[in-house]
Amino acid sequence: MAREHGCKAAFSPHFARQPPEASIDEHGQAGLARRVAVGGTRRNGSAARPGLDHRVNHVEPDEGLVAMTDEQGFALLRGAALGDGLDSGAERERELAQWIANRDRVAAVFDCEGPNGIVLGAVHDDDAGKKAGRSRAIQLEEDVPEELAVVPLGQELLATEAFASARGRNESEDSHGAVRLPNLRGGVKPRGPWAHSARFGRMDDGLASRRLFDIPEDVTYLNCAYMSPLLRSVREAGVQAVGRKSRPWEITPAGFFESMETPRGLFAALIGASPDTVALIPAASYGMAIAARNVPLAPGRRVLLLDEEFPSTTYAWLERARAAGAEAVLLPRPADDDWTRVVLEAIDDRTAVAALPHCHWTDGGLLDLARIRAALDAVGAALALDVTQSLGALPLDLASVDPDFMVAACYKWLLGPYSTGFLYVAPRWHGGTPLEWSWIAREGSEDFSKLVHYRDGFRPGARRFDVGEPSNFALMPMVSEAIRQIQRWTIPAIQQELRGYCADLVRAVAPMGFTSVSPERRAGHYLGLRHPRGIPAGLAGQLAESRIYVSVRGPSLRVTPHLYNNTADRDRLVKALEALAL
Questions:
Q1: Which residue among 162, 290, 468, 578 has the highest number of C-beta atoms inside a 10 angstrom radius?
Q2: Which fold has domain 272-442+450-467?
Q3: No. of H helices and E strands in the chain?
């Protein structure tokens, strides 16, 4: 017998701007849950825009709908079980009704877990329902209608067809388009941080975003700073992209530009910049070489570098300083881990450029880039950044840091494929000299029939610095999909989740004598565990034999989790270290 439950609606403008405690739940959404692509046709007959989505945190068996969001902000549709601590009332309901009225798409998407997989459903309002601000009801049934397909756990959720058929089956003037959510035999299992709390949760015992990756349950991969695994969706984008090359007649001249402008625009949005400031590069070393080629150096001038920093930054400037007769200064590791102090003390009138990371690659030691930028401005020096080990997991205020050049490889915290990356170039350097002279970087290159007419000018902004063949039909779609997922999670939410996870790990290993850079001087997503007796040779290999993957870099056992890690991973590492009795 079907049971029907009403759902109250509430909308908090505070949540719409910024959640008080961002988080990642087990479906891989910032504060909320699974992303489902929604398409099809609305009741008024117009086509819904593909690729737009709403996410809902979980379904209570006895209460129904709980929460939703879109890319622009947070809104709440909740059952009584989740009323704790959340605003309600007629004013909030009117605000939500107005919010929904401005959208031309499905108002909510939800899922629940049964013994066979994920069951998908949707709730949406017709025009009259929007204007009235009515809440929709969800019916719970014993049997699963075929139209609401059960998706095996771990599979990608592309539910457009399921929703379209379900809407066609259920829509009526009385139901206002409500879609029924079946109650699987064995009961509906609520999931997500709000299943146990009205507050945003942590990466606890759930699967966090693990289902979005192809990571076996017996693998503990705590090595994102080495190389991130690909998201399933990124891998699929790559498979489809490689397939395009087998049908080259379908790749038009316009496709050359779309393939590179899409990831360029996504990356620009991620860092809060214009696409005109972004160049496509194959590696951090390539971007740093562009910076080194363009920043003026002369005898008596100095380049500031961090000792023990990743070689991609260091080698380019060592060579450039040697060629110019300038001095490359390797700033020593401070005993108190205060890299910011060390850099600030080294800046003087001789400084031409500081080439720095946002956090040190061996242990996550953090630099206050805004303070360093201000000190460099005072002496007229440039700032070149390699943010490969931070961008995608650590927020960066581009306006306050104002780098002259900033490079990021994609294969770590940007979750992308190898041999891809980005270079941010401040507008003041857009007239600079590239490393190569690619035809596609020239103005007018969109018209292939006129490439026989050579041009001196370049395409706008930083595009002159693009690597040759930047369209890269196989890899650029993968890069785009990876950035889209980071945007769904949001970088502040990623940082908060990983900061808490690392803090828990530090506490767990402290009884064994391990220490790390203090939290105020360390990037939250990063750990370099130190031991009074040092890190034994071969430790990473010993752990790998138990399918626990970390790195040793310099004096540190580097542990770098991401959202696919859970408490089971942390516990496995702790127990393995205990067993080794360092």
A1: 290
A2: Aspartate Aminotransferase; domain 2 (3.40.640)
A3: 15, 21
CATH domain 210-222+490-580 topology: Aspartate Aminotransferase, domain 1 (3.90.1150)
How far is residue 371 from each of residues 191, 364, 395, 400, 525, measured CA to CA in Å?
42, 18, 16, 9, 21
Token pair of 367, please?
């630099």
Q: How far apart are CA 66 and CA 407, in angstroms?
A: 41
In the three-class reduction of DSSP (H, G, I as helix; E, B as strand; rest coil), residue 337 is classed as coil
Angle 105-108-113 from CA coordinates, rounded to 5°: 140
Matching residue, tokens 């379900």: 166
Residue 269 contacts residue 484 (beta carbons within 8 Å) = no
d(CA 296, CA 272): 27
Backbone CA torsion sign across 337, 503, 540, 286 = negative
Q: How far apart are CA 287 and CA 284, in angstroms?
A: 5
CB atoms within 10 A of CB 15: 19
Are 124 and 107 contacting, i.e. CB atoms less than 8 angstroms apart? yes
DSSP 8-state secondary structure symbol assigned to residue 371: H
Please identify which residue in the block is written with the tokens 């490359």. 328
Residues of the chain scoring pLDDT < 70: 1-208, 582
Q: Count Cβ atoms below 10 Å from residue 454 Cβ, excluding itself.
A: 9
Q: Are 17 and 11 in contact (CB under 8 A)?
A: no
- The pTM of the full predicted model, rounded to 2 decimals, is 0.69
Strands (DSSP E) found in 300-393: 302-306, 327-331, 351-357, 382-386
Please list the residues that pair with 328 across neighbouring strands. Answer: 303
Residue type, 337: D
DSSP 514-577: -B-S-GGGB-TT-EEEB-TT-PPTTHHHHHHHTTEE-EEETTEEEEB--TT--HHHHHHHHHHH
Q: Let me know: does 82 contact 214? Beta carbons within 8 Å.
A: no
Domain boundary assignment for the chain: 3-195, 210-222+490-580, 272-442+450-467
Q: At what angle do helices 567-580 and 491-509 cross, to 10 degrees?
A: 30
DSSP bridge partners of 47: 41
| Distance, CA of 116 to chain centre | 30
Strand, helix or coil at 151?
A: strand
Question: Smallest Cα–Cα separation from 523: which of 558, 499, 500?
Answer: 499
Q: How far lies 407's CA from each of 285, 306, 422, 429, in Å? A: 8, 16, 6, 14
Q: Kindly report the number of other CB atoms within 10 A of residue 12's CB atom.
A: 18
- Provide the pLDDT for residue 581: 76
Q: Which two tokens stand for residue 323?
A: 């060629």
